[in-house]
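Quick question, first post here. What does this chain look like in 3D?
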Amino acid sequence: MRSDSPDRRGSSRRRRMLVHLRLAAGLDAGPLRRRVDRCRSRALVAAWLAMVLCTAGAGLAAVLLYGSAAAEAGRTATRLHHVAAVVRSEPVQADLTSAGSPAGGYRAQATWTYPAGHTVTDEAPVPSTASAGDRVQVWVDGAGRAAAGPRSTADIVATTGFLVLGGWATAALVCAVAYGLRRSRLECRAEDEWQDDWAVVEPTWTGRAGGRNGAAD
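> Answer (accepted):
Ran it through. Tokens below.
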């Protein structure tokens, strides 16, 4: 059993696309081409263009969102200080509403010195693998208080990807539904037109209205 090669399938898709483009542009006006055929091709081409625009828009939105978030993280980093601290207790999972705690992060008692000569012992975000006595890096504000650090690149990428993909999927779904509704209406119109044409041709074809058989029923 012979199967089509990827090159052959790709060539077939390109030919079909070219046919639809010619129909949509009104360049293929053969006797078998109906107005509803052009409308179907135009609907398909419009759906293609909408998906291309959605994809381009999603790419632009990703660049803008990532750039904005990265810039904000940079500004946050300039207002804070990264200092060495000594962990004093075992880490516990932070309440998501706790100030200075990243979502899903861990906190522990830790001691650090900032500003110079000012020693602070307080809760601070720490790695989940930290143990008492470990040295870690914590973010503090100008007064030496523990603070939530700037967003990491991984967090920015994940959030941007989630937002952009969600928006793209929603737009793609809207395009698909709109195209499906339009195609369904065009199929109904094509069926009605076929029935009307057949009502004219069928008596002559079957001879029931004085056609080749010469007599009506």
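The mean pLDDT is 81.
Strands lie at 81-87, 92-93, 106-113, 119-126, 135-140.
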